Amino acid sequence: MDCNSNSKINNPPKELFEPGAARFGNFINYYTFNSVSKRLQKIPSNLVLSFQRDTVLCLDIGCNSGELTQGLYSHLTKNLESNVEVYIMGIDLDETLITRCKESNIYEGHVTYQQMDIMSNSSILQLELFLQKYNRTEFDLITCFSTTMWIHLNHGDTGLNSFLQVISKLGKFLLLEPQEWKSYKSALRRMTRLNREAFTLEKLKTRDIVHHLLQVLAQYGKDKHQCFGETSWGRSLFLFQEKI
Known about the structure:
The chain is of the alpha/beta class. It has eight helices and seven strands; from the N terminus they run H-H-E-H-E-H-E-H-E-H-E-H-H-E-E. Strand 4, helix 6 (148-170) and strand 5 form a beta-alpha-beta unit. The longest helix has 23 residues, at 148-170. The N and C termini lie far apart (71 Å).
């Protein structure tokens, strides 16, 4: 067996690690190119105080391998009084990533992970069962970091609107980091370069993403409460809350 043959066995094909190969945004080693700490710097560590509860429930949608979920827990609890408990559930549709989450979880009891697709009815039932354990009907905070584009690409305009309706019902506060249209074009280019099934951008009528989120969430009873600024990779963090 020659050196070239060994190389093919020991080194997996490049496309396995290419971001464009992750059709649902379930990238391997995602946080090596989108820093956890740079996101957390934008989020006030006293955000939990806004919820005015002794037990705070959070849902992180599209948690990937869990680094940001655990970082968020640490960030939100570092200055809390001892009588306030924070519980975060991280969900992702990728079972392999959820396994990695569970293996690296250092906050068991306060941070849990579950494999589910937020776009399925069965997942909504699972989340409602989680809330029932705390005699609650909604999460205090739902976070969705760079996930809306993947829902939009895979489920279309109708799917995006359905997702926004679901999280509006399930969460009192929503912390969203939406991708702009240029990110959609980048995702298409990567899929094309790898000869994978391309996204059909021409079918998507919604292109001014932030404006659309503001409009649709307002219809579902959520107002933009605050913008925490822009990350170094050019995405803004928006906090929405129930209309007063």
